[in-house]
Amino acid sequence: MSDPTRLRLRDFVPRGSHFHVARGVYASAARRRLHTHDFVEVCWVESGAGVHVVNGERVPLQAGDLLLIRARDAHDFRGGRPQPLTLLNVAFEPDVPNDLRRRYFPRGGFPWHAGRLPPCVRLGRGALARTTEAAERLAQAPQTRLSLDRFLIGVLDEVTYPRRLQATADLPPWLARAVRRFGEDPAQLAAGGGALAALAGRSPAHVNRTFRRHSGQTTTAFVNRLRLDRAALELRLTSKPILEIAIDCGMPNLGYFYRRFGERFDTTPRRYRLRQQAVLGG
């Protein structure tokens, strides 16, 4: 097998520019020459399915898969059928992730790890749409480090979102992926634990046992916490009636909603809203 081709960022962007944004469509599964780079990449599957040939392995890809490619990774993409593999890619200097690590992950947890394969995270529909929209804005933005950092901070926020939902729990990957999709979809959140189990592809009983084993709480307690956090957000940012917020969050019994809200925030929904608005002088 021939040595990988080495790509250079300066062959794609002019001097003084900080990033390159491109969309690629892979309609063929034909073998192509692998490549490495003198830069790093964030890329994700917008649609279709295919294979990531990387560091001697073949990794299946589907819509929503986001990859954090290191400079040393020898890789290429192969398309699938019946729909071609469509990727969006952002390339930039390799020192940028190190700066982000020092600034935002001084205690660890930085997703650009040094394993054999590049990190891959499955984005939910909402996160996929937001990331694609941000990349399209980046493609039209000034070629500055500020523009790049703004985009990458958003990507890191999406990638680490399941950890924030999990708090200190070490959930298995299948449940972490379901939690991400569940937490970003208000309709799923309102539907409750059954919807979370359906997203996970497991029975409600199995999901509940897994939550208990890894976090010490039930699925119901976890879902209610997310619902109440969503309600608090609505109280801060909208003028919706409290009953409407309770119904939208999957708690149509107003007495139950008030009781659970008080347990979580030590106040009533109305007082919470007034207190949050007080910063505006209202």
Report what the structure shows.
It is a single chain. The protein is of the alpha+beta class. The chain folds into two domains: 5-166, Regulatory protein AraC (Jelly Rolls); 173-280, Orthogonal Bundle (Arc Repressor Mutant, subunit A). Helix content is 47%, strand content 20%. It is built from eleven helices and ten strands. A five-stranded antiparallel β-sheet has the order 2-9-4-7-10. The chain has a three-stranded antiparallel β-sheet with strand order 6-5-8, with no helix packed on it. It is globular. The termini are far apart. The model has no long low-confidence stretch (mean pLDDT 88).
Entry keywords:
3-stranded antiparallel beta sheet, alpha+beta, about 45% helix, Arc Repressor Mutant, subunit A, 5-stranded antiparallel beta sheet, Jelly Rolls, about 280 residues, single chain, globular, 2 domains
